[in-house]
Amino acid sequence: MDSQGGDSVSVWRVGGMARVAGYGIPALVGAGALFDWAGWVSAPRAETAWSAGAWSGLTVGVALFFWWVILRVRLEVGPDGIVAVNPWGTHRLGLDEVTAVRLGAWGAEFHHGDGFKTTAYALSELAAGTSQDRRFAELLAVLESAPPSHRDDA
Question: Helix and strand tally (H, E) in the chain?
Fold first, then answer.
């Protein structure tokens, strides 16, 4: 338990320039929409309204894309297990289901006893644009400090 009375959960998200791009690019596209809407207010014409509407739609599409691919992606490790939120779905694993962990090109790979593996894209070098060795070492430290009742030491 942590100092506030609950179990502590460690969370990793996509970082670096990818996270900056996840906020910055939709903001730039949104500025284009805002600029066109300001032009429509000063001189209301159908062409200006159409352009502002198109930029607004593009802003929503770009924002949803970056949210889905970069901003919502995360890895959570807590006493109840591992939760990997990836663009294509959310995976939940018990700590006792994981037989090995390694850092692959697409992120942290959690190997199961049945031969399958789950990849957490939040620790991907491609997602953050930098080496994830330090963050992977943090993940291993958290997994090592998991309570013995949740680990399979056999």
Answer: 4, 7
CA dist 107 and 113 (Å) reads: 19
Could you tell me the two tokens for 11? Answer: 């969370």
State the Cα–Cα distance between residues 76 and 90, nearest whole angstrom: 11
User: CA 89 → CA 29, 118, 144, distances in Å?
Assistant: 27, 11, 26
What is the per-residue pLDDT across 13-39, written as a single tens digit (0 to 9) for each?
888 888 899 999 999 999 999 999 999
Q: pTM to 2 decimals?
A: 0.76
Q: Give CA–CA dist 140/97, Å, rounded.
A: 15
pLDDT digits (tens, 9 = 90+) for 95-118: 999 999 999 888 899 999 999 999
